[in-house]
Each structure stands twice: as structure tokens, then as C-alpha cells.
């Protein structure tokens, strides 16, 4: 196979292009670009998909997190715990709300919060925790909720990478108080631009978030506080509603490809994979492996025209403006060991076999 294996090909990831263009044409003719039934229709469909009472669509996944934290109205000095291996937005949501950011270590079986370390990081000032279902792998929400029980700690689940990820058939984002999503184009469920959503079963939080996204108002000129402007626009909502219909097939295809990697790579002793659990449904936003000679493997695969990426090359405590953290042992220098392999619904099984066999030959 001499063809290039791209990490993703966004153009190929857009099925039903005709349906989408037809819908966009209608929107342009109606000139209904902001608000209205196109937005509420997508919000209803998304609520049904995750099985949550309410969805508030917003401008992007970062705003979804920031607005969610704001909606909890936590006292100044409150501490919020965030895993140290995540995209910067999860931490920004805490600092941009003027709260104290506390980093938690991750466990290497699922790259999410290490519950052992979490117990040590919780104290009387801890008011919220933001587990991240990174790479489409669910955090241990059942274990996390047990730890938080009767402690007056709110849980916001960052599901930016986890559309369709479930534990015991229950969608992530519905275990805690709030779930947040990103519809950035490269996400498993992505729009034609930025987009995000907040899901919750609490009417109080729902109404607060509705107001936050719209200058503190539920309707025109009904401002209760100073909020912001963070709206999903109608074109994005229409694209997402069409893509959502066939999204279960995306999850199926990604699992099919991931299973090839599991089968082919689990034989390699010098490489670590996640530990899959039967009760979970994974959405495999990324397929991440961990190894010592990571940079050598990147070069080796590049020579065979195989693209890879790193999510992420640094842990957030390595960024100077964030706290340096304590006892982050599992995640120490993790950014130098992890590698994301191509996995996307446009990839053919033969391509995944090709990548796997190249990795096998690297270790021979
Ligand atoms: C884990 C995580 N949280 C939050 C975000 C933020 O989403 P957005 O890019 O839509 O603001 C992302 C997106 O990259 C993400 O991966």
C-alpha cells in the first residue's frame, strides 16, 4: 500500500452532502440564521440521543464548559478538580470563572481521572469535579459518584470527545449534574464550524445556562444578569441534526476499526493499550497507544506515509500559567509516550491492518 493514510479526511466524513446542502439552501432562502425552530429541533433530538431532559446548544465546547461552571454559582475560593491530561478548555473553564484549579492524576487504563489520587485531592473546599471522557473512553463514573456521595460536590462531565460513549447503556454526560459537548468539525459528531451543547436534568441549571448563553436573558430585554453571547447558529444545528441521524453507524464503524488494532497490537509487549470493559460502549474519538520509543515510531510510520498525532504532547501542569500540581505520577511525561493512530469512519479495515502491521514490523 503506497497510498497515504491520513489521520482524518473531513471531506470524506460528510455523508448526505446533498441533504445538507438542500437544508442550507432552505435556511438561506428563509434567512433564518439564529434561533427558532431549527435550534429547538436539534436540541430536542440531542436530548433524546443522550437521554437527558434538557439541552442548551452553545457556540462551542469551551463555552459549554465555562457556562456550566458559571451556572453552579460556586463561592470564591472554591476548588475544582480537573484531570491533568485533557484539552486546555477543561482547565480554562475553572480559571476563567475565578475558581481554584486543582489537577488530578490520570489512570493509565482509561486515561481518565485516577480515583486513588482524586480521593487525596478532595478537601473541604472542593465544590466541583470535571471528569473528561477523553478519546471517547468513559471515566469510571460509578466509582467517582461513590467518592462524591454526601460531599456537596457537583460533577460536570466533559464529553467533548465522547458522543455515543456509554456506561451500562447510559450516555456519559448524564451521570453527573451537567454534561458538555463540542461539535468542532474534527469531533466524531462535528459541524461545519464551531458548536457545542450542555445537557442536564436540572431545570434550575437549564434556565441558568439558557440565560448565560444569551446575555442573561430568556427572552428579548429580559436580562437578569450580565451573561454573554454564545449561540449555535441554524446552519450548524441543521448540519448536526442530519449527521446525528446516522451517527450510531459512526460509532459502530470506529469500534470495528478499533477491534482490528486491539487484535493486532495487543501481541506487542512493548506497547500499552487501554483496558476495555464489557459494560462500556466506546466511541473511539482517538485510538491511543503508549510506548517508550514514541518519536522513533512516528518517524517510521511517516516513512510509510502514515499520519499520526499526539493528544496531547504536554500535560496541563506543564503549562507555566497553570498550577504545577502534586503527585501526578502516572501522567509524568505522558505527553512523550502517547500516540494517536488513524481511526475514523472513512478508513478502510485494510488501512488499519496496514498501520498495525507496520507497527508490528517496527518492533521486530
Ligand atoms: C476534552 C475537550 N474539552 C473541551 C473541548 C473544547 O471544545 P471546542 O473546541 O468546541 O471549544 C475540546 C475540543 O477540542 C476537547 O477535546
Question: Quick recap of the structure?
Answer:
The chain is α/β, with parallel strands linked by helices. 35% of the residues lie in helices and 14% in strands. The chain has two domains: 229 residues, Aspartate Aminotransferase, domain 2 (3-Layer(aba) Sandwich), CATH 3.40.640.10; 117 residues, Aspartate Aminotransferase, domain 1.
Structure overview:
β2, α4 and β3 (100-104) form a beta-alpha-beta unit. It is globular, with a radius of gyration of 21 Å. 35% of the residues lie in helices and 14% in strands. The strands form 3 sheets. The protein has a 7-stranded mixed β-sheet, with helices on both faces. It has helices spanning 17-30, 37-50, 61-71, 88-95, 115-121, 141-148, 203-213, 234-245, 247-265, 294-303, 349-363; strands spanning 54-58, 79-83, 100-104, 126-129, 154-158, 166-167, 170-171, 178-182, 196-200, 271-272, 280-281, 287-291, 338-341. The protein is α/β, with parallel strands linked by helices and 364 residues long. The protein has 2 domains: 17-245, 3-Layer(aba) Sandwich (Aspartate Aminotransferase, domain 2), CATH 3.40.640; 247-363, Aspartate Aminotransferase, domain 1, CATH 3.90.1150. The chain contains 11 helices and 13 strands. The site of pyridoxal-5'-phosphate (PLP) has 15 residues, from α3 and α4.
Amino acid at each position: 500500500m503506497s497510498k497515504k493514510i491520513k489521520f482524518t479526511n473531513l471531506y470524506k466524513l460528510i455523508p448526505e452532502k446533498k441533504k445538507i446542502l438542500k437544508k442550507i439552501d432552505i435556511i438561506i432562502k428563509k434567512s433564518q440564521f439564529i434561533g427558532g425552530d431549527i435550534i429547538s429541533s436539534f436540541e430536542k433530538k440531542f436530548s433524546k440521543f443522550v437521554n437527558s431532559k434538557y439541552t442548551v446548544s452553545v457556540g462551542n465546547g469551551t463555552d459549554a464548559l465555562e457556562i456550566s461552571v458559571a451556572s453552579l454559582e460556586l463561592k470564591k475560593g472554591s476548588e475544582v478538580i480537573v484531570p491533568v491530561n485533557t484539552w486546555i478548555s477543561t482547565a480554562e473553564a475553572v480559571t476563567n470563572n475565578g475558581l481554584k484549579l486543582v489537577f488530578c492524576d490520570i489512570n493509565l487504563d482509561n486515561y481518565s481521572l485516577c480515583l486513588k489520587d482524586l480521593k487525596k485531592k478532595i478537601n473541604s473546599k472542593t465544590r466541583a469535579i470535571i471528569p473528561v471522557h477523553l478519546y471517547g473512553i468513559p471515566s469510571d463514573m460509578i466509582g467517582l459518584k461513590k467518592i462524591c456521595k454526601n460531599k456537596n460536590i457537583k460533577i460536570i462531565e466533559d464529553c467533548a470527545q465522547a458522543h455515543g460513549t456509554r456506561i451500562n447503556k447510559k450516555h456519559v454526560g448524564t451521570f453527573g449534574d451537567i454534561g458538555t459537548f463540542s461539535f468542532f468539525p474534527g469531533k466524531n459528531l462535528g459541524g461545519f464550524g464551531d458548536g457545542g451543547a450542555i445537557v442536564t436534568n436540572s431545570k434550575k441549571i437549564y434556565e441558568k445556562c439558557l440565560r448565560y448563553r444569551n446575555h442573561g436573558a430568556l427572552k428579548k430585554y429580559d436580562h437578569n444578569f450580565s451573561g454573554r453571547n454564545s449561540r449555535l447558529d441554524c446552519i450548524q444545528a441543521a448540519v448536526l441534526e442530519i449527521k446525528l441521524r446516522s451517527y450510531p453507524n459512526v460509532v459502530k464503524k470506529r469500534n470495528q476499526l478499533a477491534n482490528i488494532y486491539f487484535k493486532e497490537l495487543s501481541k506487542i509487549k512493548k506497547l500499552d493499550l487501554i483496558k476495555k470493559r464489557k459494560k462500556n460502549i466506546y466511541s473511539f474519538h482517538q485510538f491511543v497507544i503508549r510506548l517508550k520509543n514514541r518519536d522513533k515510531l512516528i518517524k517510521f510510520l511517516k516513512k510509510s506515509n502514515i499520519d499520526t498525532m499526539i493528544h496531547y504532547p504536554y500535560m496541563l501542569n506543564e503549562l507555566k500559567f497553570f498550577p504545577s500540581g502534586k503527585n501526578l505520577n502516572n501522567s509524568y511525561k505522558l505527553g512523550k509516550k502517547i500516540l494517536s493512530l488513524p481511526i475514523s469512519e472513512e478508513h478502510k479495515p485494510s488501512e488499519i491492518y496496514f498501520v498495525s502491521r507496520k507497527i508490528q514490523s517496527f518492533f521486530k
